[in-house]
């Protein structure tokens, strides 16, 4: 049976909300996503929650285990380098592809994102700053117009964002606004090989800020997700 429009709208709202709190590093890797409390929090059926969690698992940010349930994906220390290397290859190639080819509108959008990201961090709104940082990278990879590569890159960006959340000791979150400004400058005015090199260097900076040691996770879903 086809889902009703209301059901689809509810599903999208909940999906967006959960995806946001995960990428804002409010919902930590390892946090359990139990259907019953989520259904109660959002005032929907467990069926809708189940569909949302399945979508998030396809995005690579939620893991669903039989007889265990769903949780935000955790990455073992041994796997970390693999995800960052994959991201450097894919996102570096996409940065090279778009160098010198962005429209004036796209350039202004990127600069606007960098300014907003910087403003949010200066205000002390770390969560929204992290979300804007992720949006910056999503926008860059989509600008190349290669959907398969963009989808691959977005999954890697989301996964490495979770890795930063899991292993970042200082709580700084990974990306630096000045790195993003420099990336836009090179992509607009530089050469493709420069852009690829700088992107790989930027992702290296993120990886090198990690402290590869597990930490315990306890999350209060009601406190985090309840309507204000």
Please tell me about this protein's structure.
The protein is mainly alpha-helical and 228 residues long. It has 2 domains: 5-74 and 214-225, Arc Repressor Mutant, subunit A (Orthogonal Bundle), CATH 1.10.10.10; 77-208, GntR ligand-binding domain-like (Four Helix Bundle (Hemerythrin (Met), subunit A), Up-down Bundle). It is 68% helix and 4% strand. Strands 1-3-2 form a 3-stranded antiparallel β-sheet. The relative contact order is 0.16. The model has no long low-confidence stretch (mean pLDDT 89).
Characteristics of this structure?
2 domains, mainly alpha, Four Helix Bundle (Hemerythrin (Met), subunit A), 228 residues, Arc Repressor Mutant, subunit A, 10 helices, 3-stranded antiparallel β-sheet, globular
Task: Set down the secondary structure blueprint.
Elements: H1 5-23, E1 32-33, H2 35-42, H3 46-58, E2 62-65, E3 69-72, H4 77-98, H5 104-122, H6 126-143, H7 147-167, H8 177-189, H9 192-208, H10 221-225
Antiparallel strand pairs: 1-3, 2-3
Arithmetic mean pLDDT? 89
**Which spans have pLDDT < 50 for at least 5 consecutive residues?**
none
CATH superfamily of the largest domain: GntR ligand-binding domain-like
H/E element order: HEHHEEHHHHHHH
The main β sheet shows up as: 3 strands, antiparallel
Major sheet strand order: 1-3-2
Helix content: 55-70%
Total tally of structural domains: 2
Rg measurement, Å: 18 Å
Distance between the termini: 34 Å
The counted number of beta strands is 3
CATH architecture annotation of the largest domain = Up-down Bundle
Molecular shape: globular
Protein name: GntR family transcriptional regulator
Keywords: DNA-binding, Transcription, Transcription regulation
Domain HTH gntR-type: 8-75
InterPro entries: GntR_C, TF_FadR/GntR_C, Tscrpt_reg_HTH_GntR, WH-like_DNA-bd_sf, WH_DNA-bd_sf
């Amino acid at each position: 049976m086809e889902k009703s429009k209301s059901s689809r709208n509810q599903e999208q709202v909940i999906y967006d909300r959960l995806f946001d709190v995960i990428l804002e590093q409010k919902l930590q890797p390892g946090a359990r996503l139990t259907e019953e409390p989520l259904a109660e929090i959002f005032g929907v059926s467990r069926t809708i929650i189940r569909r949302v969690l399945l979508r998030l698992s396809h995005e690579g940010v939620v893991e669903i285990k039989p007889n265990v349930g769903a949780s935000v994906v955790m990455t073992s220390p041994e796997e970390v380098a693999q995800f960052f290397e994959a991201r450097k290859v894919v996102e570096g190639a996409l940065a090279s592809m778009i160098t010198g080819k962005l429209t004036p509108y796209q350039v202004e959008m990127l600069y606007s994102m960098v300014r907003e990201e910087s403003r949010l961090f200066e205000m002390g709104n770390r969560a929204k700053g992290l979300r804007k940082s992720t949006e910056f990278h999503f926008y860059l990879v989509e600008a190349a117009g290669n959907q398969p590569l963009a989808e691959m890159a977005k999954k890697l960006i989301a996964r490495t964002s979770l890795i930063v959340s899991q292993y970042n000791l200082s709580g700084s979150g990974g990306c630096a606004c000045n790195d993003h400004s420099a990336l836009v400058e090179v992509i607009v005015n530089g050469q493709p090989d420069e852009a690829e090199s700088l992107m790989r260097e930027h992702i290296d900076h993120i990886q090198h800020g990690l402290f590869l040691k597990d930490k315990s996770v306890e999350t209060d879903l009601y406190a985090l997700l309840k309507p204000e």
